[in-house]
Amino acid sequence: MTYKQHPLSAAFPPMSADDFLTLKDSVEDIGVQNPITIYEGMVLDGWHRYSASVELGMACPEVELGAVDPVAFVRAQNKERRHLSAGAWALIEVQLWDWKPSHRPPIEKGEPSSPFSAPLESPARPERSNADMAKAVGVTGRTIQHAKQVEQNAAPEIKAEVKKGAISLKTAVALSDLPQGEQTALAAKGPDALRQAARDKAPRALAPRTESAPEIEELRARIEELEDIKAAYEGRNAELEEENARLQLSVDPDVLARISELRTYTQTVEQTRDHLMNENAQLKQQLKRAQRAADKKGAA
């Protein structure tokens, strides 16, 4: 039996050609060590392992997903082994949330609705807030809003470049209102052409074409990155506080020791957050100075 890749798996960027060859060599030497996961008759997790085994004509162990939320499962599996940009994670999260399963179990009486449990024929699919999606992947709500715009309007080739980390989400947003054919043609020219096209589209007052424009873009990108890092730290800090509160209910010595460790770690997180906030504020001031200088040079 030949499987297709599940849409939730396809939301993540493919492995590079070199990495796939390395994986294929490993499968040829020792076989597939971790079973792939099947859901709805498709490969939900382990697509590259499965593809390598098919190309080699080798057996591939498999397991069914079982009674687990497939979105939460595929997100968790990929978070453990992928190092993606904040923009890539935001775009993927939007796509994961947009997915609709081919079948949904009926809701038990009194059970809260969710996109996994709601009946397929339900016309009012519950909305998930930008804040919820942002927390799930450690970005800001503004980044999720940008991801929604890209998901709705950008060409597939542009989305693929974001997921690979070749261009920023901000660049994709700037190009997303172009005709699809024009976006595809730009993507064929490579990431540099996409970034240049995004700069050319920017209003002159916001991004004057001067020698300092690259510096301004770099500062803005760093500020957005810091805001996402800050959001991730705040999310982690909230999780630690919740765990701390639960552990306080116990008087077990090991638990008390864990509470002490958590408090120390929380202090470290808060110090790092404060440092990032200070750096963010300094960069914003630097951005303003660079913008003023660029405006003066553009007016000259």
Q: Care to describe what's here?
A:
This protein has helices at 7-10, 17-30, 47-56, 70-81, 86-98, 130-137, 141-153, 156-164, 169-175, 180-189, 191-201, 213-247, 253-299, and strands at 36-39, 42-45, 62-64. It is mainly alpha-helical and 300 residues long. It has three domains: 1-83, Conserved hypothetical protein from pyrococcus furiosus pfu- 392566-001, ParB domain; 85-201, no CATH class; 203-300. It has a three-stranded mixed sheet with strand order 2-1-3. A hairpin with a 2-residue loop joins strand 1 (36-39) and strand 2 (42-45). Helix 6 (130-137) crosses helix 7 (141-153), helix 8 (156-164) crosses helix 10 and helix 12 (213-247) runs antiparallel to helix 13 (253-299). It starts with 6 loop residues before the first helix and ends with a helix. 25% of the residues are buried.
* Largest sheet, spatial ordering of strands: 2-1-3
For the record, give the distance between the C-alpha atoms at the N and C termini, rounded to a whole number: 69 Å
- The chain-level mean pLDDT equals 80
User: How many DSSP H or I helices?
Assistant: 13
Strand content: under 5%
Structural class: mainly alpha
Total strand segments:
3
Q: pLDDT below 50 for ≥5 consecutive residues: which ranges? A: 104-125, 204-211
Rg, please? 23 Å
Number of domains: 3
Helix content: 55-70%
The secondary-structure element order is HHEEHEHHHHHHHHHH
Shape: globular
Largest sheet: 3 strands, mixed
Quaternary form: single chain
